[in-house]
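Section 5.1 Outputs to date
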Amino acid sequence: MTVKEAAIEVLKTAGRALTVEEILSDIKGRNLFLFRTTGPRGVLLATMKRHSENTHSCTPAKAKVFRQVSGDRFELIG
């Protein structure tokens, strides 16, 4: 499972927008993805921004699956 897939799973289960910290906590708590870095929040945030329809990313993904609602709160599109 990728970071993106793990975030999708967490947001599907929640059924509402969550902060990056909430998503990260759930990913770790459910062992959905093993972060091999000292900065997992940054990795998750960059991944979510890359796959969000209304954010800026230096390397945007073609397929958008997230929407940034406010601050660091994200929801699934559709």
